[in-house]
Each structure stands twice: as C-alpha cells, then as structure tokens.
Amino acid sequence: EAGVAQSPRYKIIEKRQSVAFWCNPISGHATLYWYQQILGQGPKLLIQFQNNGVVDDSQLPKDRFSAERLKGVDSTLKIQPAKLEDSAVYLCASSQGFGAFFGQGTRLTVV
Amino acid sequence: EDQVTQSPEALRLQEGESSSLNCSYTVSGLRGLFWYRQDPGKGPEFLFTLYSAGEEKEKERLKATLTKKESFLHITAPKPEDSATYLCAVGMDSSYKLIFGSGTRLLVRP
Q: Does the beta-carbon distance from B46 to A35 stay under 8 Å?
C-alpha cells in the first residue's frame, strides 16, 4: 500500500515570496491533515479536511496561508507572502478513523 | 484548553538502561492516545493506539500504557537504534482532531 506522498521535499525561498506544497493521501482516507513542525517542537495542526470539507482551521494564519482539497483527494497548502518565521517542516497526514499516517514532509527555509 | 505535555524534553540512556517517557493530557472528549516515533528528516511513524484506561500495547522493547490522565512509554533494555524523538498525540471527539505534544528526544549510547 502506497503511503502519503508529499512534494517537494525541500524548498528555499526569500521572504515575501509565495510557495505551494502538494500532498497525495493514502487511497481511501477521508481525513487529511496539514501540520507545521518547527525545529525542536511537536507538530502543530494547521488545517484538517474531512473529504473536501474543512473540519478545523483555527490555527491557520489565514492572512497568508491557504489550503484546498479538490475532489476529496489531493491537497495543496500555499503560503503568500512567506515570512522568516514560516521556516519549518510541513507535514501532511491522512487517516480513515483514528491513527494518522504521515508523509516525509517538506522542509521550508525562508531567507 | 486542550493540552498535551510530554516529559522529559530529552533523555540520554546507556544501552540496556530501561526508562519511561511520560505524556499527560487535559482534553475534552478523548477518543484515543497515539504514540509516534520520528527520526531526523522524516515524518512521524505510527507506533501504538490506546483507547481506554488500563490498556497496554507492546512492540519489541516498547510498551505503552494509559491512565485517565496520562500515558507512559516504557523502554526496556534500549539499543542505540531506539534513538529518536517520541511523540504523543491525543484524538479528540468525533472529528478525529489530533493534537501533539512537543516530544521527547531519546538518545541511547552504546
């Protein structure tokens, strides 16, 4: 069974630029999560989808971050414009019920 | 406020020296507690799910237990390959929301 796929693995951008991350969840998983993990900290939930509807986006900085999940499958997370403090690993996870499975993450460096 | 706290932040052990990691939580509507292992540069890897107080799960040198307010991850006779960050997460209500603690960085020296 294929796992959660994320791309790119690494991205370096200048502040005020925009960036997008892509996630393909495990086939059949209705729930998709985006987490932000700053070095030395635990993952922080940014947004949670159930199929293509948003369940929780209370910690998503909506002035600069946006996310969508088209047709209840793939998802993209966008940052525009990026700030230095957005440097982190962005993790995508999916689940069918409880027990989420994670992708390898995208390491973003904002300079 | 829903909260998950892990301790210690970091732990250094000699190979074969057993110890325990703690995860305490204050959440409403707990639906499950999850332990993950995270190696540098990788995403968290699922280890265990615990659903009710008194439940225990084991995998090789790891054993997870759950009470009404906390969970422990016991590591028996650890090996250097057990070195990683161990993350605890709680699943909440019926929305499958997952909240993580800050993790415990474990280093096992040969």
A: no
